[in-house]
Each structure stands twice: as C-alpha cells, then as structure tokens.
User: Fold this.
Amino acid sequence: MALSKDIYSAFEDVVGPEYICNDPVIMPSYHGTEFAAIVLPKDTAEVQAIVKLCNKYKLPFRPVCTGWTGKFSKGTLYLDLRRMNRIIEINETNMYAVVEPYVISAQLQAELMKRGLHLNVKGAGSNCSAMLRGHGHLDQTTSGDDRNHLAIEWVTPAGDIVRSGSLGSSDEWFCGDGPGPSLRSILTSAVPPGVTPGVFTKAALKIYHWPGPSRFPVEGISPKYYLSEIPPNFMARYFSFPSVEKMWEAEIKIGESEIAFELMGFNVAMVAANITTSNEEEEQTFQRLSKEVQGPGFFIILAGNSAADFAYKKRVLEQIIGEAGGRSLASVEDPRTEGILLCQCIRISASIRETFRPGGAFSSIPVMGQRDLTIQWAIGAGQAKEPLIEKGLIVDDGGAFFGWGVEQGHLGKTEIFCKYDPQNPEAKKAVEDWHNAQSARAFQERYFALLAGPNEEIGRGLSNYHLWWNKIQQALDPNGVSAGAGALV
Ligand SMILES: Cc1cc2nc3c(=O)[nH]c(=O)nc-3n(C[C@H](O)[C@H](O)[C@H](O)COP(=O)(O)OP(=O)(O)OC[C@H]3O[C@@H](n4cnc5c(N)ncnc54)[C@H](O)[C@@H]3O)c2cc1C
Assistant:
C-alpha cells in the first residue's frame, strides 16, 4: 500500500530524502513484506516526529533493531533504527551501560571486556541488538529477559517521550522503577503480545563482572570460530546423568554453590550443532555423541577469579557431579572442542545452527519459570514429539528439550523445539498441532501459562489479564498505530 505523495513528503521532511524509501525494488529486501515505506531516523527527536505523523495519518508503524524477528502487516511504516547505533555510557562504578537500539551485543561485549565487565548476550547471538530483552547461555550469571533493563527512554505510541525510573526524576540511568508506580512491566515487553508498544530510543542495561581476558581471543572465520588457547582459569565440560532428576539435583547444587559462569542445559543435538560446520558433519556427530552420553545433561563453564578460586570451583563441581552420578563427555574434554565451545557459548555465535539444525524451520515453546515445573512439562512435550520423529515429520533429536539456570538457579528456562521442513504441509500441520496441544497442556496441568496470544480461558485464569492489557493498550495507543502490539482475545 503506497503512501500518497503528500504523506511521503511529510516523513521525508523529518529524516531527509536519503533516509526514506518506498522503491519497489528495495522494499522486498526488508522481510519480503509490502511496507508503506522504510524510514531511518537518526535520533529520538526524529522518532518522535515520525510517530506523531503516524498518529496524524493513522498509519501503523513498527520499529526494528537488527530484524531477527517480527511479523509485519502489509502497509506498515518500517522504522529501521540502524542509524541509532551509539553506546552512550558505560558506567563502571554503578555497573550499567546505556545504549541506542542498533548497538549489537558483540560491540558492547568487546567494550565491556576491556573494562573487566560483561553483559547478558541473548542466545539468538551477539549479532542481535543488545537493547531488547532476551535470554540465553549466560543467564546463570548475567540474568535474563526483562530483569536486565534499568531506566529507559521511550517514545509512546501517541508520540510522547517518557523517561522511566531514575531517568525521569534525577536524569540518571541506574534504576528502572519509580518514583511512584513503576512502568517496568509495560516497557520491558514482558507482557503479551511479546512486544512493547511504541519505540525504545535508549536503554540502560545491567552489566556484570567478567573474569576473563580484556580482549576475547577469538580466532577463525564464520562459521568456524574457536579459541586456540583456553584462557587461564577457564574450563568447559559437558556432563550427562542417569536421569532428569539426577541432572536437576546437580543443577540445584551448582546454583547454590555459585560456581558456574555458565550453565546451559544443551541436549547433545545442540552440542553437535555448536562444534560442527556442515549438516552432514553435524548429523554424524549427533549420532556419535548420542551413544556416548548416559542420559540428559548440561554444558558448564567455570571461570575462576584467580588460580585458587578456579581450583576451588573445580573441586566443588567434581563433588556435585560425583554425587549425582554424572559423567563427563570425553569429546568436550579435547581442548580443540573445548576451545570451540568456549568461543561459541561466551560470544554466542552458533545459535542459528543450534536452533535450526538440518530442518529448515522450527517451532519452539520457550518458558521461564520454576525449572523443576518446566522440566516436568517438557518431558511430556518431548514424548509427544516421538511419534512425529518416527513418521519422519520432524528432525530426530531424541525428543529432547533443553534449558538452563538463571541467576544461579533462582529461576530457570526450559525450551523445546520441533525442526521440520516448511515445504512439507503434513509436517507443518503436525508441528502446529503439537505446539497447540503442548501449550494447552501447560495451562491445564498448571505448569505455566503461555502469555503470547492467550485465549479467554487463560486470561480468566490470570485475573482477567487480557482485559487489563487491552485497556492499557487503548490508553497508550488511542489511534491504534503501534503495529504488532495488538489487542488480545
Ligand atoms: C535462530 C534464532 C534463535 C533465537 N534464539 C534466541 C535466544 O536464545 N534467546 C532469546 O532471547 N531470543 C532468541 N531469539 C529471538 C531473539 O530475541 C530475537 O531474534 C532478537 O533478540 C531480536 O533482536 P532484534 O534486534 O533482531 O529484534 P527485532 O527483530 O529488530 O525486533 C524484535 C521485536 O521488537 C520490536 N522492536 C525492535 N526494536 C524496538 C524498539 N527500539 N522499541 C520497541 N520495540 C522494538 C520489533 O518491532 C519486533 O516486534 C532467536 C531468534 C532466532 C531467529
């Protein structure tokens, strides 16, 4: 749906002719959707002016950082935020960093490591925006999702600028709450439909201690990144256990003793994806590793602050693993494989392989919550995958789920994938049915409720959540222009 000349030139007046486009040759390169136009604002003032024009012309808009996700409707105005790519501040004393939307995690991580600091890099990869909430391999020590957001500068769907938390009251970024009622849960997109209405233009993120080298010694080129030397006081291992219960027992003790830098409950299919560079090699490695493990397991990185601290952590780990009947996977003890895994899982660069595997498309159910509950649910969801594997409709990963600790086990995350060929309608339908049935079972058996797109039954079970969310949405976005953040059932 093309914009009229008058409306196009109103947006052009804001960003200048070089930073707006509706050329039909260029447009399909953006998500393959027919957008009204693409605009590239350079700062908050331009974002605000664009959002105000969208309200004036009742034109839906959607902001995009690095564009790994997002479903877009035809006729939406696409705000490509790539010009807003500055690290505004790294506050070493109060341990936060302030970034614009297009600062990617790799960029911020490199700057932080120079200062002995680190951040939560989303499992999607260090090539994604640092600003948007996410979770992944490092959650054990860097927490995950919305818990890392502090103060935020936000252009509301109506075009107002809100400076949340301490930013609004004292012009400082250190806190996301108050004074008075907090906006955090709206701003950090922890509410359905999974996206924040409006546009974040700057955000402060918590940062954490990094015990490793000031320059991460990565070698190789994509997709083969590795560390040829293991940094002092670092170690990576994979342990498998006789049962899920034993694995879980070890995870709890590791959390209580706070020895792990990273605790990532990969299944062996994901280990194979991380250490190989082609589908054939991956399949062979998966088959081999499946025979070497005794049952479910996890990947762990220890990082000592000193040689003595490292020795202590190794001793504690040895005792915990021994008590739970765990067994170390010999392949990962090979320093070459260990170097690849340390690289991929600290810098987070293999997610695309971990996630897709030789399938082509995936359907995933990710949940954060009490790890024991989510594991119990995932065992059933894994069993429900087995008939699909037998019929050859999804990739064989042994029915496995995966998960990891968050904040030394105070929280946890569990996720389960089905990987399938999107060209196969039978497979696509079977995976959709699996997804719907397992999401419904999660709610009916009271493990958790998936909030993205809840139906009325889930809304009623959660204090009429859907009704409240719709009221908030209407109040924030009276003209309904914040595309993607639509009403719930
Ligand atoms: C293969 C794969 C693996 C993944 N693994 C993980 C994982 O392990 N952990 C995890 O957390 N996620 C994972 N994801 C999802 C991931 O979080 C996102 O892909 C990524 O973090 C999004 O960053 P982005 O900058 O590309 O977001 P975008 O795609 O640019 O945006 C994501 C959403 O946020 C909105 N948005 C963008 N910018 C703004 C802004 N400034 N203000 C308000 N709203 C905005 C967009 O409109 C869109 O709805 C995975 C995705 C893929 C494809």
